[in-house]
Specification:
There is one protein chain. By secondary structure, this protein is of the alpha+beta class. The chain is built from two helices and five strands, in the order αβββββα. It has helices spanning about 1-30, 110-130; strands at about 40, 45-55, 60-65, 65-70, 75-80. Strands 4-3-2-1-5 form a five-stranded antiparallel β-sheet. A hairpin with a 4-residue loop joins strand 1 (about 40) and strand 2 (about 45-55). The longest helix has about 30 residues, at about 1-30. The N and C termini lie far apart (about 85 Å). It is found in: Cell membrane.
Length: about 130
């Protein structure tokens, strides 16, 4: 019974606790290596550029296209690299964007216009017959 408990604890440590600690350490290293001018993404999804970092207060000021906001350092999800496009140390370069155009559903086709006009005329005919 005691051996089973020890094996269960060892299993939990190596497959649950240890990877989480490793991930926390990587995140802390990323925050410690963050510098002014790095592009970052917050946990709320805001994208901005680091304007200043206050290690004592554990805050960071972000420039969000002219709007300056102050966040806790723990609110930074990822550091994408310097604003000039070079990746930060320990982070991967952002993936290239796909240049294929998006499907534009807002454009109406002539067939759609004809169908909607036919629907309108049927509605008008029905209302005229009721009188």
């Amino acid at each position: 019974m005691l051996i089973t408990m020890v094996l269960l604890f060892a299993f939990m440590y190596f497959f649950m606790m240890r990877p989480q600690k490793k991930q926390q350490q990587q995140h802390q290293d990323m925050l410690n290596n963050m510098k002014k001018g790095d592009k970052v993404v917050t946990i709320g999804g805001l994208h901005g550029v680091v304007d200043s970092i206050d290690q004592d207060a554990k805050t960071v000021d972000l420039d969000l296209d002219g709007v300056y906001l102050t966040f806790n350092l723990t609110a930074i999800r990822t550091v994408n690299g310097a604003a000039n496009g070079t990746p930060a140390a320990g982070t991967a370069a952002p993936a290239a964007k796909d240049d294929t155009p998006a499907n534009d559903d807002s454009a109406d086709t002539p067939a759609d216009d004809d169908q909607s006009a036919a629907d309108d005329s049927e509605t008008n005919d029905d209302s005229e017959n009721k009188d």
